[in-house]
Amino acid sequence: MKLYFAPMTCSLSPHIVLRELELPFELIRVNNKTKATADGRDFRDINPKGYVAALVLDEGQVLTEGPAIIQYLADQVEGNSLAPANGTWERTRLQELLNFISAEIHAGSAPLFNADIPEATKAIFRHTLFKRLDYLNRELMQKDYLLGAFGLADAYLFTVLKWLPFFNIDVKHWPELASFMKRVEARPSVKAAIAAEEATQAV
Ligand SMILES: N[C@@H](CCC(=O)N[C@@H](CS)C(=O)NCC(=O)O)C(=O)O
Q1: pTM over 0.85
Q2: Residues 13 and 156: beta-carbon distance below 8 Å
Q3: What is the CATH number of domain 89-187?
Q4: Is 141 exposed, middle or buried (0-12, 13-18, 19+ CB in 10 A)?
Q5: In this predicted model, what pLDDT tens digit does every residue of 119-151 receive, in sequence order?
Q6: What residue spans in the chain does CATH classification 3.40.30.10 cover?
Q7: Which atom in ligand 1 lies closest to the alpha carbon of residue 35?
């Protein structure tokens, strides 16, 4: 499998999951501005949507959209601890969470990266984002990870919360989230994924 990624973007989530599951994969960097890839291609020929992450299977199929990729990966490893079995209520709960992270935190914070959006408009996005963070902070009061034990939703949440410093938002305002970030960051898979991304050459 090949994971097309850009450092410290949402592709970190499937990258962490690949390492947690100990699946063999090749990491291929994408320049998100030029769309050039480290293996000499135009990334838009791989993912016509033009954004990371993209997972290319050994058989050639391309899978995009972070929540779909990480669920696919977990389903490759029978008895894995990252996702409950398909068709169970617990799996539906995981999908509820992945959708929340995708729509409310990932997409909800993306406008804050946009230099063309005026500060007054960004304040509206920040206000909504803070309410979502309040909710997650409450959720983590009684448990270490979103569904009890570390799983897919935690890899994804960690990835998108890593962006908070770029928006000058201090996670310390949400103490449970701050502890969560430290816990996840200490995982060997997470350390290895971040180090591997940093070690790649710019394209
Ligand atoms: N809905 C997609 C969003 C992916 C996405 O937002 N990718 C960003 C990085 S976090 C990107 O590559 N943006 C570059 C672009 O859109 O040109 C998913 O969940 O995978």
Answers
A1: yes
A2: yes
A3: 1.20.1050.10
A4: exposed
A5: 999 999 999 999 999 999 999 999 999 999 999
A6: 2-80+189-199
A7: 17
- Write out the CATH class of domain 2-80+189-199: alpha beta
Q: Which of 32, 46, 51, 55 to mutate to test the pocket of ligand 1 (most atoms within 8 A of CB)?
A: 51
- Where do you find CATH 1.20.1050.10 in the chain? 89-187
Give me 111's structure tokens.
């406008």
Nearest alpha carbon, ligand 1 atom 2? 65
pLDDT in tens, 171-194: 999 999 999 999 999 999 999 999
Q: Which of 4, 10, 11 to mutate to test the pocket of ligand 1 (most atoms within 8 A of CB)?
A: 10
User: Which amino acid is residue 105, in one-letter code?
Assistant: I
Q: Is the dihedral of CA 31, 34, 38, 41 positive or negative?
A: positive
Helix (H) or strand (E) holding 55, with range, is: strand 54-56
Residue having the nearest C-alpha atom to atom 12 of ligand 1:
51
Give the residues surrounding ligand 1 with Cβ less than 6 Å away.
6, 9-10, 32, 50-53, 65-66, 102
Strands annotated E in 30-70: 54-56, 62-64
The span from the CA of 202 to the CA of 185, in Å, is: 24
Instruction: Give the separation between CA 188 and CA 126, rounded to whole angstroms.
Output: 32
